[in-house]
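Reminder to self: keep the SMILES exactly as supplied, no canonicalising. Ligand is adenosine-5'-triphosphate.
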Amino acid sequence: MEKKQFQAESQRLLEMMVNSIYSQKEIFLREIISNASDAIDKIYYQALTDDQMTFNQDDYYIRIEPDQENRTLTIKDTGIGMTREELETNLGTIAKSGSLDFKNQVEMEDGQEIIGQFGVGFYSSFMVADKVTVYTRALHHEEGYKWESNGQDGYTIEPIDREEVGTEIIIQLKENTEDENYDEFLEEQRLTSIIKKYSDFIRYPIKMDVTEQKPKEDDEETFEEVTEEQTLNNMVPIWRKNKQELTDEDYESFYQEKRFGFDQPLSHLHISVDGMVRFQSILYIPEQLPFNYYSQDFEKGLELYSNGVLIMEKCADLLPDHFSFVKGIVDSEDLSLNISREILQQDKQVRLISKNIEKKVKNHLLSLLKNDREKYEKFFDAFGRQLKYGVYAEFGANKEKLQDLLLFYSSSEKKLVSLSEYVERMPEDQEYIYYATGESHDRIENLPQTELVKDKGYEILYFTDEVDEFAIKMLMQYDDKEFKSVASGDLDLEDEETKQEAEKQKEEHKDLLTEMKEILGNKVKDVKLSTRLKSHPVCLSAEGEVSIEMEKVLKQMPDNQNIEANKVLEINNKHDIFQALVDAHENDKEKVQLYTNILYNQALLIEGLPVDDPVALTNDMCKVMA
Ligand SMILES: Nc1ncnc2c1ncn2[C@@H]1O[C@H](COP(=O)(O)OP(=O)(O)OP(=O)(O)O)[C@@H](O)[C@H]1O
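Structure tokens returned for the bound complex:
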């Protein structure tokens, strides 16, 4: 029989599994049972919606069979089964999880991280198995197949006769070692407790023969061993339970059973609505950013059930993009089983549910912000950027909904603050909400442009995310206060006296400024004396809608259309360098050129913009020094 090789990626993952020292090896059972449950979901749905199929509730179950003698653990399901092609693609490649793309080599070698954070589905069985055999037959297919692998050198597939549809996975346990006792996975008690811990809410019965001491029927005093098939899990879906009966651990284990993430959920909501539309829902805010969140691979959506039957694994229409990080399930008795993807989008019930969910998630986040700041900041750290995209997207259609969820770092508080906190603190004479943009808080802290605003005692919000300024431009104002960049050309914060003095100076140095503008040509829109600079010699400001920070972001876009900010070079006439410029203007024209170029390049560097010609700049600097 031909032996096939695993795909390279899968091979690496398998090696990791075989040699795993991960301490929670028991999770392999959760993974296999979840797969079995998914497979039953698929056939259950078909049975309910296909008139040709007979439906019998008792046909859908998972069975666990430990065999002490042969040291095997079998997990059987009556699910949809797999065809030959499905065996190849599903078990021969590390199909969808993509965890490996993300992880770097160092972490790969260790493996702990991957298993812990992502789980690895079917492959995790190789943490405890020397050999795994899968017998399966797919629904509506005559032939069954046997798949087998030791997890090391490929796998085999051969056709078999198999009467029933469904899958049987036989795990040949590894030999016990000094540190590891694999026999525990054959003990009834141990298996029962693992299943209770991880798979209690699986909605199909997980059955196993359990042997117990029971009093004899005719003689209550004497006990005998009785072996009976028992259902080990509770089966009532968690969302149908009363909130009061459930603990945080219950919600956490459901999160893991459903593989919404392999982190702990940061927070959950349990919703039961009985109004225009009836539905129950459990929603989670994950703690960590999924590794592919900002890639095209990420699919948002909630699991959708119609009265307990899974009809869609990821229903995107239930979540707006700005809350795409939310995971969870929705079950509604008002939805038809036969609802198709196309109809779903126009379905009134679905729209109502989605509106309701959006509102609930928003209120939940607001209450976290109010009552558990630390948790909210953790959330914001992971997903705040998505909220800001949300403000910007769709021409600001959702901006009002989202504005109170935003946080920005504050110059005066030295921590994240909300817009309402900022506005509450504003002194009476302050007209605008000020912000400054840059790569990091430290860099912004030292920006020359912030000097005047800080001197006035005004708080500045620091924008370090590319999307920040775009979002804020879309927002335009908060609580009737407009936003203003500290680098904008028209700060207009000076008192009358300073303004008059500036006018006078401008007139006096008109020729010098004109000459400098001519030297720089169309690199800048204007050269002027600065009223905002206190100790720094130069800075760049921007006139008009496009800021320098926005220019940087736009430049990185594929279709940037060369949009540039209207840059203005501002010179501090109270700085010594200005006197040097004035002297040069009178005595040495070449020096004016030299100084102007250097100052302009300095201003570019301060802004984090590339200098046009580094060689020319260093040559100019040497000329000054020599
Ligand atoms: N018992 C089963 N019956 C039918 N198909 C199965 C069964 N077990 C696994 N599969 C198929 O194999 C695929 C791969 O399973 P695996 O556990 O490796 O990953 P997954 O469940 O797709 O992803 P993840 O673990 O990241 O959620 C499943 O998606 C499913 O199509």
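Points to follow up:
Residues 423 and 433 are 8 Å apart (CA to CA).
The longest helix spans residues 348-371.
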